Amino acid sequence: MSLLEVQNLTRTFGGVRAVDELSFSVDSGAIHSVIGPNGAGKTTLFNLITGVYKPTAGRIMFEGTDVTGMAPSVLAGRGISRTFQNLQIFFNMTARENVMVGRHRHLNSRVVPALFRLPSIVRADDKAWRMAGEILEYMELGKYADLESDQLPYSALKRLEIARAFATEPKMMLLDEPAAGLDRNEIREIDALIQRIAASGVTVLLVEHDMKLVMAVSDHILVLESGRKLAEGTAEEIRGNADVVTAYLGRATPSEAL
Known about the structure:
Elements: E1 2-13, E2 16-27, E3 31-35, H1 42-49, E4 57-62, E5 65-66, H2 72-78, E6 80-82, H3 95-102, H4 111-115, H5 119-138, H6 154-166, E7 172-176, H7 184-199, E8 203-207, H8 211-217, E9 220-225, E10 228-233, H9 235-239, H10 242-249
Parallel strand pairs: 3-8, 3-9, 6-7, 7-8
Antiparallel strand pairs: 1-2, 1-4, 4-5, 9-10
């Protein structure tokens, strides 16, 4: 069953078509990766799906509903969360407080109850505190829970951003280069984490340059070039696709990189 359907999606910037009449679908519960050379339109696609950009043309369907152009906050309420290529961490907060930010949409933010700290507000805040700790443990970040975020190593910050997105209780998570800047051992940890998230029932849409990670975790792969679909299929199908190899290496020869 398709959770997400992208239909003839186009986004232009001036005379440049960053995404060009793109159509694909993402099955519920799958790990679906989007790959392509630099400038292929991957992050623009993420920005369109999450409401950061509005499309020039085309539609985005989520759970059978047209969500094209909806605001990021509305889409988060519908179950779409994301991480960013460049870390978006609150460094003046602890790791736990960062994750609690992800719980915001589940909390009562009305002024009067919050102002008078009604019992319902206190109970909800206590629950958010506990859940943030549980999520950090799930992400293997428990030892950092009450440290200021600027004290965490880079690899932990990458997982912390994933933890905050996970705290929204999403139906689909968009992960934008979660392995960027990590060493091989840290990438293996991200590999295991992505698979654990998918096993929990959350659909994952992944943009990543590390091909070993992509080939290891993906149920389905979409390849973009200049904003258009170049190919899609299983890891084996993509690895053996001459057009994909040419796009990455400039020549149609087998490669261990894919």
